[in-house]
Amino acid sequence: MINEGTVESASSLEKTARRLTDDIQSMSNYRALYNEIQRLVASSVVNKDDFKNSLVAALKDNGLETEIRNTVFHWARSRGSLHSRSVSHIQAADLSYLKKTQIQWERRIQKSLNSTCSELNIPLARVRSTADRDELAEKWNELSTYDIDLSQYRPLYAPKDFLDVLFSIRDPSFKKQLDELNWDFSHIQISVKTLAQLRRMYLELSQGLPLLGINPDMPATEGFPNLEAERTHIGEKVLNSNHAPIAQEFLKRGSPRALRGRIWSLVLGSVIKDNDIEYYEELKNMVLQYDIVIDKLIVMDVQLTARNDDQYFVFEDVLYKTMLCFSRDSEILAPVTTDRSAGSQVIHAVLQGKPATLENTLVFPPSGVIPFHGFTMYATPFCYLYDDPCAMYYTFRAFYLRYWFRLHTVSSHEQGIVALCLLFERLLQCHEPQLWAHFKNIHIQPIKIVFKWLMRGFSGHLPPEQLLYLWDLILGYDSLEIIPLLAVTILSFRKENLLQVNTQQNVEAVLADLSSLKVMPLLQLALLKE
């Protein structure tokens, strides 16, 4: 007799299969994959008398089985949150006030943008003049030579402004004096991990396994001269297998520099196909055709950040291309605005000099993302991974859609910036109580010191090589929780110096230079069993 559980399970499986079938048809690689399979079915290698077995064998031989598996892997990742975890009583709390905060914040940003346009008497969007379009096209590969007057512009907001928004959050059920500022985020009822749970999650680190980024000359197995050589050999095998889940596992112990770009693309499903190249060209043409006010903010941000950074100034031109194309990419809009943590507020702009009809109205910016001061730094490290701007663009975009947008969005998501701030505070309070008490005594909120690290994922604060090891771990474990953990670890590492200073300026001075830090040893030290 079939029990109810079996029937339910079968029904659930059927629903998932149906949803998978429907969703895959809207994925960017579907058409190419479908055509390849059709071609295979029509070929002589598939025997109609033994259709199923011969097709499965042919799919394996042609690498299409792996392609299908990777497609399902990316679908599964896109469906769920970064971590499915059991819902505890604390997560059952009403956190809708966080979404309201995000909606209000988005409106504030949009109001600020509209005010800028009004003050400067410029439209949100306009069709470029022929002369401007031709000049931009001519200088596309050297956009640093494209002259724009930015003297009247300023960033719409900076991480500090966003932190003020987070500090203003009020849980309606939390009793507090109206004029009393939040000292920390303890009143927000989001469940975050303990250090013990993080140790169980980051097993490769907590078990003291050999990792890249600690000592490249560390002895290796199987006759390899060192760990770097061994990891490179294994990494090549992983790439040859073309299996995204295996590539993700590989990243947990760090990637060799030479393979990192390809490994990341495989994990994120951002390996470029012909249709991606065509779409990238469309984005470029959109930049050439339309002048939007966001362009000025992007150019200004690149100039204020990457251009002034010794590690990234050489990538100025490719960053302009990347960020300008990003602003025109309407494929970013849906994931960002439909995510449960988003406020879904968008601006609709009518092209200057055009009738206010539907075809002349566009979502502004098309990506739905309004950049802030430092936004470019989400993209800068990718410059080290790819020579091809198109390949760089798609991996940066995939990384942003998976992780980075959560760092500048107010949400109840367990990987959102609020949860990461809360995790930082809990870890610091529990495991560095002396530091926590010291900050309290000198009236400095610890989160104020590290927020710029958290919001940027440490980009621009760590040397590129160390940063990329950190981002290997984000991808490998599919989690941003490593960022607040590293922030706590750095404070712990500089503890003696921090305890000797009592002003915010001096605290920041102690933590200003992170260039000597090695990420992997620090994290391993923090996670090793006590």
TrEMBL record:
Gene3D superfamilies linked to this entry: Ypt/Rab-GAP domain of gyp1p, domain 3
Domain spans labelled Rab-GAP TBC:
254-478
Provide an example Pfam family for this protein: RabGAP-TBC
- PROSITE patterns linked to this entry: TBC_RABGAP (PS50086)
Can you tell me where the transmembrane regions are? none
Could you tell me the superkingdom of the organism this chain comes from?
A: Eukaryota
Known InterPro entries for this protein?
Answer: Rab-GAP-TBC_dom (IPR000195), Rab-GAP_TBC_sf (IPR035969), TBC1D19 (IPR042507)
Q: What is this protein called?
A: TBC1 domain family member 19
Organism, by scientific name, is: Trachymyrmex cornetzi
